[in-house]
Every structure is written in C-alpha cells, then in structure tokens.
From TrEMBL:
One of its GO terms (biological process) is transposition. This is Transposase. Pfam families: Cas12f1-like_TNB, OrfB_IS605. Residues 95-161 form the Cas12f1-like TNB domain. It comes from Streptomyces albiflavescens.
Amino acid sequence: MFPQRARQRTKKHRAAARKVATLYAKVRRQRLDFHHKTARALIRDHDTIAHERLNTAGMTKAPAPKPDPAGGGAFLPNGAAAKAGLNRSILDAGWGQFLTVLANKAESAGRLVIAVDARSTSRTCLECGHLSAKNRVTQAQFRCTACGFTANADHVGATNVLDRAKLVLCDAA
C-alpha cells in the first residue's frame, strides 16, 4: 500500500508490484501449460470431443442488488461475497482459454469438437428421458422421480452431453 499523500508510488511499492506481477505471470504460464497438455492428451486419445457450451461471462456476472422495501435506500443481503468466490474460481480455472486451445489443437489435428447446449444435462434421466429438477437429489446423486434410475449426477450429465453430440453428428450427416 502506498502512502496517502504521495502522488507517485514509492520505490518499495513499485518493487512489490513487480514481484506480484511476476508471480501472477508464473501462474498464468502454468495454467496455459496445463491447458495445452490436457488438450493434447484429449486430441491424441479421441477423434470427437463433446463439451457443454458454457457462458462464462454470464456465469461470472455480479449478483443484482436487492433493495430493502422497509429501509429507505438500504439493501438486503444478496450473496455477493459467496458469488465473488465462485467467480474467482471459475475465472481462475480458465475454461474459456482451455476450450480455445482445445478447438485450435483439434482443428490442426483434424479432430472434431462439438459444443452442446448445457441446459438440463444433469437433470434428464438416461433411462426414460424424464426431466425434473427433483431428479438431482444432491450435488453428486441423481435419482429419477419417474422410473427410479439412480446414478452419479456427473456421469448422467456427461452421458447426456455425449448423446446430444451424437444427435448433432447425425443431423450433420
């Protein structure tokens, strides 16, 4: 933190800012290296890769303020602190950067990358196709309210993404 009255940053502050910048640059290079290695492994092992089309800009948007009807000009809690932590983790993972690297490597290797609609992939039953928010018992557990099918929610979501990608391939053929 630089002094309140100083118009220019002190020498110590500039040195500290350079040190932080070098640390962030190292993290950025490590993240990019991980993205390249993971994308290369996926391209090497698979001919077609399907993923959810995610709106990361919309997902990391700040929550809207909630005005307090009783208080004049006051606001109710809107979960902004929790949302800020989630936003930080989404942006830190670099999903958009990874998908860009994956698409570029797939194009150069002659592989196919399909982005499918992410809506309701983890709430649709694999067995009967029933869609309900109540199908998702917990974050990790899926239980269909219509037919009773039970599985891991991530597995259900991934299988639904694969099925939707197959439909895209069939429509393209």
